[in-house]
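Module 6 notes. Inverse folding takes a fixed backbone as the condition and produces residue identities as the prediction. Think of it as a translation problem where the source language is geometry and the target language is the twenty amino acids. Below is one complete input and output pair. Work through it position by position during the lab.
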C-alpha cells in the first residue's frame, strides 16, 4: 500500500465561531510554550534514558495526516525499536476493516523498556508541544492519522480531518489504546460535530485524571 502525499478531506465547512477558534489557538500556544520551559530538564533526562536503553535517535519523526488532509511531520519520544515502523507498515498493508483494526497490543515486542513507561505516562507525547507551537497540532483534537489508514476513510470519516489533530481528544478520555479504530472514529466524529472551546477545556480536565490513572495506555 503506497503512501499518499495528501488525503482529501470532506469539503463541507463546519460552522465554528471565530472567537472560539482564536481562543483555542491562544490556549494552545501559551500552554505549549509554558510546558516546554517547565519540562525541559525532564526532556533532557528522557532523551538520555532512551539513548542508554536502546540504539537509535531519541526523537521519533513520522508523517501524519493533519488539517484538511495535509501531511506533516509529528514528533514523539521513541518508544520502540528502530525497525518498528517497517513492521507496522507490513501490518497496515493488510488492513481490510477499519472498524475492528487495533493499532497497539498490550504485549508488543517492539516496545523498549523505557518505552513502556513513557507510553504508560504519556510522556512520549511531550515533543508534540513543538507541533502545537508550529500550528499543525492542537492540545485537543482527533489523534493524527497515518496516511495508510486515512486514505481508507469513507466520506463521513474524512470529516475528522476538518479540525487540527490533537495530543488528546474525546477518544483518549474514553478508552485510549483499548479502543478499536472504529470506536475511535465514532468519538472523533462526535468531537468534530460538537466542537466548542468549552468542550476542549472539559477534555483537557478529564485528560489529567486519565493520564495519572494510566487508563487505557500500553
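Target side of the pair, the amino acids:
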Amino acid at each position: 500500500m503506497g503512501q499518499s502525499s495528501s488525503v482529501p478531506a470532506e469539503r463541507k465547512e463546519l460552522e465554528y465561531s471565530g472567537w472560539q477558534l482564536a481562543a483555542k489557538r491562544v490556549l494552545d500556544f501559551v500552554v505549549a510554550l509554558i510546558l516546554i520551559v517547565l519540562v525541559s530538564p525532564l526532556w533532557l533526562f528522557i532523551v538520555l534514558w532512551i539513548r542508554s536503553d536502546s540504539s537509535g535517535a531519541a526523537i521519533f519523526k513520522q508523517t501524519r495526516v493533519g488539517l484538511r488532509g495535509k501531511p506533516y511531520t509529528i514528533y514523539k519520544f521513541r518508544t520502540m525499536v528502530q525497525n518498528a515502523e517497517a513492521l507496522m507498515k507490513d501490518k497496515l498493508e493488510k488492513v481490510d476493516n477499519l472498524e475492528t483494526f487495533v493499532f497497539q497490543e498490550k504485549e508488543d515486542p517492539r516496545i523498549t523498556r523505557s518505552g513502556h513507561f513513557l507510553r504508560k505516562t504519556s510522556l512520549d507525547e511531550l515533543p508534540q508541544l513543538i507541533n502545537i507551537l508550529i500550528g499543525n497540532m492542537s492540545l485537543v483534537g482527533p489523534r493524527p492519522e497515518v496516511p495508510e489508514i486515512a486514505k481508507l476513510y469513507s466520506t463521513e470519516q474524512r470529516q475528522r480531518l476538518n479540525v487540527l489533530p490533537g495530543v488528546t481528544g474525546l477518544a483518549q478520555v474514553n478508552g485510549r489504546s483499548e479502543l478499536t479504530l472504529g470506536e475511535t472514529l465514532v468519538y472523533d466524529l462526535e468531537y468534530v460535530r460538537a466542537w466548542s472551546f468549552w468542550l476542549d477545556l472539559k477534555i483537557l480536565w478529564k485528560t489529567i485524571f486519565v493520564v495519572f490513572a494510566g487508563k487505557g495506555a500500553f
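Reference fact for the lab report: The chain has one domain: 18-213.
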